[in-house]
Amino acid sequence: MDRAILREARAGRHAYLDEPPLVRWLAVGAALAFLVLFLLLPLIVVFTNALERGLTAYAAAVRDPVTLAAVRLTLLTAAIAVPLNLIFGLAAAWAIAKFEFKGKTLLTTAVDLPLSVSPVISGMLFVLLFGAQGFLGPFLARHDVKIIFAVPGIVLATVFVTAPLIARELIPLLQSQGNEEEEAAMTLGAGGWQTFFRVSLPKIRWGLLYGVVLCNARAMGEFGAVSVVSGHVRGLTNTLSLHVEILYNEYQFAAAFAVASLLTLLAVVTLGVRFIVERSTR
Amino acid sequence: MAAKRGSVLPGFSLSMGFTLTYLSLIVLIPLSTIVLRSATLSWERFVETVTAPRTLAAYRLSFTAALVAALINAVFGLLTAWVLERYRFPGRKLLDGLVDLPFALPTAVAGIALTTFYAKDGWVGRWLDPLGIHVAYTPLGVVAALTFVGLPFVVRTVQPVLRDMDVTLEEAAASLGAGRRMTFVRVLLPQLLPAILTGFTLAFARALGEYGSVIFIAGNMPMKSEITPLLIMIKLEQYDYAGATAIALVFLVASFCVLLLANLASRMRRSLLPA
């Protein structure tokens, strides 16, 4: 109904609900300028700079053994962090959205906590725990376990930073759908897991997909936290993001942007998934 | 935490148990180390570290730059949300999808792209430089990076409110003789304000802690363009864990206080508004 009125307003039938054309064009122009200046052009800068030295140089930068090692570590990190946070996201969303209990607000705040901590501080937490001068440092040294300046530290920091992402997508979604269908399934004799997999999960599949894709993009691109715990050992503890920084600081701009373009493509794919998800849920 | 009421659905103890265990192991225990670690600091050492001129300059830059960036995002975020929801023009859907780019783009990539973009010979820098406006390697660059990082928040909090808004209110205002501008200021803006404030707070919080996109463009001069997360990073690289912890603790407490105040403000506004 409201939409219909607005559409009529736009067609000029209800001029009193629309701004004068001059205002309209100024508003569109200003918003466009803002978005193009702050989003679109920086995005294009990545690709033009990556291809500045031509396709051969681009391919060489991407196929460099150090880059490939960074790709492997980045994939490994995401392959551990995303499934862990997926299980956490499903459990947290189920508990928070489907049940009433005391301290719900507190729990929701705790789930969101990593988002309001600076990534550098997030990384620092793990250095304080597992570093040489950390609480568990002497114990780890005695057993010859390396966490900081090694792969486990990178994985831990990434898991911490990306922990809330899937839960945050799922909580409002599960809440908005109510419990009736699940309750009906239970009444008809379905078991708990059966209800979860056959009734609840299909209803939230699109939100879940976007949550996973976003969590994956953030896990692969995490920089600050990983930078603190990695120690920047080339070919060993270098993720793609850290590799971009090293190349850039060595003035290998084209190579830095070539590696950056891989991460940018990942971001574009993530936005594409969001676009499709929005379409199919509306 | 137990006391569940009136739900026949199973899995409460399983999901809650897993959530609490995971949260404790991954988030709460690591976070508590910062408090425990600070307790081992001597008071004199703590005060000396957090009141050092370099630390104070970093705090000041972090808070002002985040504030300015969040304000820019509040104004342009509202405008963007309005234009995307209310007007039709070619490329609208594409731009709408693009708004989330800062959520998905790794911060290091954003950092080098923005630096190249605003540098003296960059696409925008070359036009601003002759005007005496230097963005890259100055505090202005910090603001530009933080604006990028916080861009989606206001847009995404205002959009759904605009979409679900009752058009009859606007009609009533118009039928009572209010012009478009008056309707916007007196009828629309009050309804949008809570969402704008929420988005502003989220953008501010995100900007405060941001590291990756800033360090490339900031120039990182101590006292001038050095943000707090970078100062913490420098202390950590010098193995000054005590100093890093002290700076981080004050920074965390200060940012939580700001968030709390913003939450209180929006709650007070809501209780003042007629239902």
Structure, described:
- The complex is a heterodimer of chains A (282) and B (275).
- With 282 residues, chain A is mainly alpha-helical.
- Helices cover 77% and strands 0% of the residues of chain A.
- With 275 residues, chain B is mainly α.
- Chain B has a single domain, classed as MetI-like (MetI-like fold), CATH 1.10.3720.
- Chain B is built from 13 helices and no strands.
- Chains A and B meet through helix 1, helix 2, helix 4, helix 5 and helix 6 of A and helix 1, helix 3, helix 4, helix 5 and helix 6 of B.
H-E order of chain B = HHHHHHHHHHHHH
- For this structure, the CATH topology of the largest domain in chain A is MetI-like fold
How are helices and strands ordered from N to C of chain A? HHHHHHHHHHHHHHH
Q: What portion of residues of chain B belong to β-strands?
A: under 5%
By helix and strand content of chain B, what is the structural category? mainly alpha
Low-confidence spans of chain A: pLDDT under 50, at least 5 residues?
none
Secondary-structure class of chain A: mainly alpha
Strand content of chain A: under 5%
Question: What would the CATH topology of chain B be?
Answer: MetI-like fold
Overall geometry of chain A: globular
> Could you say how many structural domains of chain B there are in total?
1
Notable characteristics:
heterodimer; A: 282 residues; mainly alpha; MetI-like fold; 2 domains; 15 helices; B: 275 residues; 76% helix; 0% strand
